[in-house]
Amino acid sequence: MTEPAEPNVTAERRGHNVARRLVIAAILLLSARAEAWDGSSAWYRAADASDPGGAGIFGTGGGHDHGVACLDCHIDRDLTNTIDASATFTPPLTPMAGVFAYVPGQTYGVRVDLIGEFLTPGGVGCGPFLMHTNNFAAEFDDASGAPAGTLASDSGNGCPTPWPSGAAPVPATGTTGLANDCQVIFSRMDLPDGSDQGRTSWSFQWTAPAGGPVTLHYGVVDGNCDMNSDHDAVVMKQQTLVAPSAAGTRARGRPFGIVAAAAAVLVLVLLYRGARTSA
After folding, report:
1. Is the pLDDT confidence value at 30 over 50?
2. Starting from the edge strand earliest in sequence, which strands make up the sheet with 176-177, in order?
3. For residue 123, is it left (φ>0), alpha (ψ between -120 and 50) or beta?
4. Residue ranges per structural domain of the chain
5. What is the pTM of this model?
6. Residue 113 CB: number of other CB atoms within 10 A?
7. How confident is the model at residue 256 (pLDDT cuts 50, 70, 90)?
8. Is domain 11-258 annotated with CATH 2.60.40.4060?
9. Distance, CA of 114 to CA of 166 (rounded, Å)
């Protein structure tokens, strides 16, 4: 997927951003392969630990993760088939002039779905001591890459919270979680009843900001049974949202251009006729 242009960013700053992204990706890649990614605490476990974790980098591809994507850790992927993902908003976003508009301050229910899962669907075929974990993470950014709006998980945990570090009770239900700076929503892998295994849908809430363009960055992993970062399938997605005023301006601009062109043609016709009459 083509990386979106960074508005109002100098070449020097862009170079620093790329360099920082490469350093972070190198740390993750040079760490040992992530084994037994079987709990939500893995998102925050140190990348250089004996059992490496994400070190607070989720792989959304957005500003919080400095552009690091799921693809940067899941490099030895299964390319037998391709997967896709979708984000559904409730209430629905408003289509306007080829973009989708949000209502400032509106709280939306968001469901992200993994489409086309093909690696051990439902966990069928995993051994008795193995787990089938699909994963997801998302963030909403403004034009500068800073967080846009606020997130809430469906687990009922407040924010900030020490969970999932283990210092707080683990919520018994829910598909998503928040922790630390609460700028990234992530999939849970620690439900007591094991219902998180093989999950292909995750839900959360997003309260829209007061205005401005917003980009939803998210990634979804179709995991296999080996409980590490090898031989999985990955998809990265982006969706741009605008406030109604911006979408309305864009929509109104097109008819105005047509009217202006028609008026110019009419003036030329009248001038031409006037010239012929004079002759």
Report:
1. no
2. 94-96, 99-101, 233-242, 214-222, 135-141, 185-187, 176-177
3. left
4. 11-258
5. 0.73
6. 16
7. very low
8. yes
9. 28
